[in-house]
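Researcher: Sequence recovery benchmark, item below. Answer with residues only.
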């Protein structure tokens, strides 16, 4: 074993430029980090990410204001996704060695009548909307109707998701979760929907509606063991912080820590870093995606990156010499791009340890699974994934 504790931070949706297969997804020209940094025109300061080598990943087409540095502290590169889709589930499962190759159910024209009927019968409520729409727009448009009639707002997006928005003043959190659980059960083999997402919100009218952090994702259970299971079976600790737990339906995660926001996610990760364990702490920071990417908010996304960078500084200070920090993303969600959906992009890869004297390039990884393979390699476990470990590359250039 080389590193005792591995921290993996997934900056949800922080892509670093259109992937080579972006055209298949109609995402040519998408560039989450590129468009945010050029919107901010050098005003966006990301000192910690820059020092690690974020700008070095894009030496060929530099990010405005996030430039390559001469001696990056981390090993840097980018990863290509091989999963069939570009949702969080595809990205996270692939990272942990299980690319999603079997296509999931997409419903761009709304869910079939029998499914809607089943939801209505189970809940005793009428279903409204039933089409792809943004989650903030849908409550602004239909939230008042929901308050009047008690109807369920069911909607989807470009991903394999069935989302149910409910004002908790009339549909309690318990009831919403119960309905989502039922929908989860009936959409596993038939419909094969990736995630059923409970979207609670509060507010008396349109001017006040606000979604809460009680969002819950009921994801398909990974059909095979992932790196998380392999670690646990070998006796290593697996700690999930934030949405990570939902994305794996808890499978392979021994300790599950709920978070309220990106900031809280960093607080909880720092707290974990102050404990002694041997294994993996796997954190997802979802605000980038949910609050700024899908909302196509370049300004807010930039601020969230700066806020993250500051908290990253704190995490770096809490790392020990035999820790490894892996920073990456699960897909893109370019706030400067058309539509409101995820974008098929490369994701950044930064690998840092206080034990490194400096880093260098890890190149373009052919699959996110290289990350999981590296973790297995680190803990001297057999690589049962299609990923290729870059652990030995992390021994390059070191003074030791
Ligand atoms: O518009 P909201 O409700 O944020 O939903 C978005 O969040 C889902 C999960 O990331 C995506 O599939 C997209 O639909
Ligand atoms: Mn995501
Ligand atoms: Mn999303």
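Model:
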């Amino acid at each position: 074993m080389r590193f005792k504790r591995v921290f993996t931070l997934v900056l949800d949706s922080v892509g670093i430029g259109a992937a080579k297969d972006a055209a298949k997804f109609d995402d040519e020209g998408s560039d989450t980090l590129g468009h945010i940094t050029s919107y901010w025109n050098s005003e966006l300061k990301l000192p910690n990410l820059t020092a690690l080598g974020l700008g070095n990943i894009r030496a060929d087409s530099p990010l405005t204001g996030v430039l390559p540095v001469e001696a990056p502290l981390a090993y840097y590169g980018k990863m290509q996704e091989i999963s069939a889709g570009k949702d969080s589930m595809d990205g996270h499962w692939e990272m942990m060695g299980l690319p999603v190759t079997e296509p999931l159910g997409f419903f761009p024209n709304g869910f079939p009548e029998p499914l809607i009927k089943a939801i209505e019968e189970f809940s005793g409520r009428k279903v409204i909307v039933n089409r792809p729409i943004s989650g903030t727009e849908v409550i602004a448009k239909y939230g008042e109707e929901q308050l009047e009639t008690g109807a369920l707002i069911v909607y989807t997006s470009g991903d394999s998701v069935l989302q149910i928005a409910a004002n908790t003043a009339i549909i309690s959190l318990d009831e919403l979760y119960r309905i989502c659980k039922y929908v989860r059960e009936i959409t596993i083999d038939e419909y094969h929907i990736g995630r059923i997402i409970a979207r609670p919100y509060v507010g008396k009218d349109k001017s006040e509606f606000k979604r809460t952090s009680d969002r819950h994702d009921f994801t398909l259970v990974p059909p095979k063991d992932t790196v998380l299971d392999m670690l646990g079976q070998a006796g290593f600790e697996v700690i999930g912080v934030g949405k990570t737990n939902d994305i794996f339906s808890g499978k392979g995660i021994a300790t599950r820590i709920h978070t309220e926001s990106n900031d809280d996610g960093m607080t909880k990760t720092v707290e974990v870093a102050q404990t002694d364990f041997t294994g993996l702490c796997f954190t997802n920071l979802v605000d980038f995606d949910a609050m700024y990417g899908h909302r196509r908010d370049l300004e807010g996304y930039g601020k969230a990156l700066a806020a993250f960078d500051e908290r990253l500084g704190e995490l770096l200070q809490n790392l020990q010499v035999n820790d490894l920090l892996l920073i990456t993303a699960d897909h893109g969600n370019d706030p400067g791009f058309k539509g409101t959906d995820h974008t098929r992009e490369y994701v950044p890869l930064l690998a840092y340890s206080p034990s490194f004297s400096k880093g260098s390039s890890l190149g373009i990884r052919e699959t996110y699974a290289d990350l999981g393979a590296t973790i297995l390699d680190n803990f001297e476990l057999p690589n049962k994934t299609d990923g290729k470990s870059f652990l030995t590359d992390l021994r390059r250039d070191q003074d030791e």
